[in-house]
Design goal:
Helices cover 42% and strands 11% of the residues. It contains nine helices and five strands. Helix 1 (14-22) links the parallel strand 1 (5-9) and strand 2 (28-35). Helix 1 (14-22) packs across helix 7 and helix 7 packs across helix 8 (205-217). It is globular. The relative contact order is 0.18.
Length: 230
């Protein structure tokens, strides 16, 4: 490990875990997990704690209760979380609609801004995020354009030399799973479900994308509620 410090935005999900694990031997990482009133907050925090323990990382949980009160995201309200089938994942009209239903206003802008504050305060040169190509098809705050734009903001808006590192920015989920295996990421500890149950539901978009990715990668995955019910 070098003496380069990094702040990781870690939800406990597949993408952020693999991105963080990718740098575990290169940077001195302090992970941040955000509780903004999402349905899955308890499970995400539990997963993130376990991942940080496994990887030997410092870990801080940040409460953002006000974020839940903005917008009408199905992740933070009683609105129904959309369910998808495998063959709907690549139908743009369908996934665009599901993205709108789970969109949390300004979430990645807020998270990355807070990570910037931590980076400045802790003298960290890097911010690690799990933004990826597959998510970017429906979530603009996962895109390479967003990454480049935010890095430009840091160039002009910070007194320090801080850069966002997004190692998955050109990857689809299948490739992320393969990278996770290569870097010994604790994939079995990750939590991806929108619903927040002890067992992944297996039918929300996040679960469906995860299930497809592990299947295509030929890697064993966790158990899903939907599989039990079949």
């Amino acid at each position: 490990m070098t003496n380069i410090k990094a702040i990781a935005v870690l939800s406990g999900g597949l993408d952020s875990t693999v991105a963080t694990a990718n740098y575990k031997d290169k940077f001195d990482i302090h992970a941040l997990t955000f509780n903004y009133g999402q349905r899955s907050s308890d499970m995400e925090i539990r997963s993130s704690k376990a991942i940080c323990k496994e990887l030997g990382l410092k870990h801080t949980i940040i409460d953002l209760p006000w974020l839940k009160n903005l917008g009408k995201s199905a992740l933070t309200t009683d609105e129904e979380v959309p369910e998808l089938k495998f063959d709907e994942l690549d139908v743009k009209e369908i996934v665009d609609e599901t993205a709108r239903k789970v969109w949390v206003p300004g979430r990645n802008i807020v998270f990355t801004s807070i990570a910037t504050s931590y980076a400045e305060a802790l003298d960290a040169a890097k911010i690690i995020v799990g933004w990826d190509l597959e998510e970017a098809t429906t979530f603009p705050d996962n895109s390479k354009k967003f990454l480049n734009s935010f890095n430009h903001v840091l160039e002009v808006g910070s007194l320090y030399d801080i850069k966002i590192e997004a190692p998955l920015i050109n990857m689809i989920k299948m490739d992320i799973v393969k990278l996770g295996v290569d870097v010994n990421a604790p994939l079995e500890l990750t939590y991806s479900c929108y619903m927040g149950g002890n067992v992944h539901c297996g039918v929300c978009e996040s679960c469906i994308r995860r299930r497809r990715a592990f299947k295509l990668a030929g890697v064993s995955d966790i158990e899903y509620k939907a599989d039990k019910e079949v």
